[in-house]
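Can't paste images in this forum, so I'm doing it all in text. The chain is below; anyone willing to post the predicted structure tokens underneath?
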Amino acid sequence: MENKDISAVVERVAATKAAWAALPPQQKLELLDQLMDNLNAHGEALHAASVFKRDGDLKDAPAYSALSAADLQALQNASRAQHWLHSSMLVSNWLSIIREYFEAVVKTGAPPPPLAVREAPAEEGKPQRHIVKVGPSGLLHTTLVTCGSLELVVEGPVEQELLHERPPGVAAVLGAGNFDGPVDLLTALFIENKVCIYKLSPFNARLLEPLEKIFAPLLEANFAAFIFGGVEEAKSLLHHPQVDKWFMTGAAATAYSIIWGSPEPQQPPAEPLFKKPMTVELGNCTPWIVCPGKWQAIAASMAFNGAHICAHPQVLLTCKNWPQRQVQVKEFLQLIQSYIQEVYYVGCYYPDFSSRMEWASAAAAAAAAAAAAESYKEKLLAMGKKAEEFEAPVHCPIAKDSEIKKIIFATDLPEDCFFTRQETFCPCCGEVPLDTEASLAAFLPAAVKFANEKVHGGLSVSISVKPSTAAEEQGSCANPTSGFRRSAPPPRLAFAARLAAAAAAAAAAAAAAAAAAAACGWLRGGRSFALALLERAVADLNYGAVHINIDTKMSIAFPSLVWGGCPGSTIYNLNSGIGFIMAAPNGSNAAKMAKLWRRIAFASFQRRSTQGWFSFAGSLTKIASAFAANL
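Text version of the structure:
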């Protein structure tokens, strides 16, 4: 990596832009095969660097010194599994799906077709929208979404585009610090058809060596380059005259500073200082709309990557008036809290997470007072909440250098609260009960309206709902305690037993895939009372990613979909960002980017997973990595 003269790096890479754009699909396919071979050779090094970046050597971490050997091993396994998902496995998944596009072009001269296309519910005065099914395909992807469905909403006619014929250019990427697979680099090169200079986040310095080995064919040909640095290096990169597009994942204030020279946006007719085209993803206060059911997966979702992720569930929307709410919802929330205690929280590593949750030291308190800031704990106390009501104990410290053994899970919050306005980016989640009639028909539209109008952002939203007829819904309302009861937590299995259980579960999922395929079409089956309500909810939600019965953190794993804020943001109000990464090479390029509206991920209604496979890794990650690389 050359950092002394960023201008020279840009010039060297820019000189290859025409050659890259003109490179035949066969040669790009061969490059992808080389990258996959390199990932097979160096993926474990990338994974190890990802783990060490966050956790260091757990055995030497002062916060974990009191843990038993069994708990320390379980924590280490959980860390390995989580960080494998957004490092080696993430890159493997992307390479394999992008490869499908180029393989189809080489064999047939055309992109792979969508799996299915159908018309979406029509809206008066607007172009016809279509639902384009793009996955899953293969055992791994089918298992990841629990035999569900991956779909895109496309506005206007469905038109295929040859991605490798897009015009040449030079892209600059300001890489994220919370993900270790540089998938935006792959977007720039193989989907945008541009050569790319990728600036690593300061958090990711340890990743450079394995990344340089994995992407060596692209670096050696000067189709790409890695640089490292802070604000000044970012400015030099973005303002270079050869750079014609930039990508960023981060905070809105950072994007505004680049565009306007100030962390606050200007208003029309003001002209921006920086006008280059961009794709920026800026996060949101991810809402999770919870209809009655047993949804323990929410607790596991709250633990992923120390909650340092824009798809972390932050606002749970429930119905205030379900019959005997104090029984039903109390048991539901207690169920989440019980799983919070079981999940091993790993990887809280952003330096200010503890001070944002609660002032951990006198120095932090003094700095906060000088900035007139309040921690989330202080804000909740000021709202009249008691600490014991919202501090949820966890199994072990949530960071290697912190004694904190609790996260914030606040319930019964008012509709106007900081959880809906401010992205926490740490283990904080709040339940907001909506005052609606006790029916899905009343609650779901109200929750959609609230998510659109009261929750900051438009990046990602999830809905948990069970299939029902009208009679079944009335029955569940009359018997509100059904479905939430839970016995004592099951005993923790030995690693070998858990590995065997995971293998058995995977085999069962594969055997059930064909039968479950019918359930994947639940929006079209007409058998469920929830059908029309969910179709309307999907159409009305102003979010780039809509998930039904599936964790929002699966969203970036599939380049056959798109990832970004809902269309409509501007430089005067970025909201969750502008543009998409991915652009969907595996058939979902069936629509041009300007016409892609949002993505939908569905999982089977009867999903039982608690994502407990986060709790162990060891050889399993190596087996699964090799399996993914050979799909």
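The domain at 287-615 is CATH 3.40.309.10 (Aldehyde Dehydrogenase; Chain A, domain 2). The first helix runs from residue 6 to 14.
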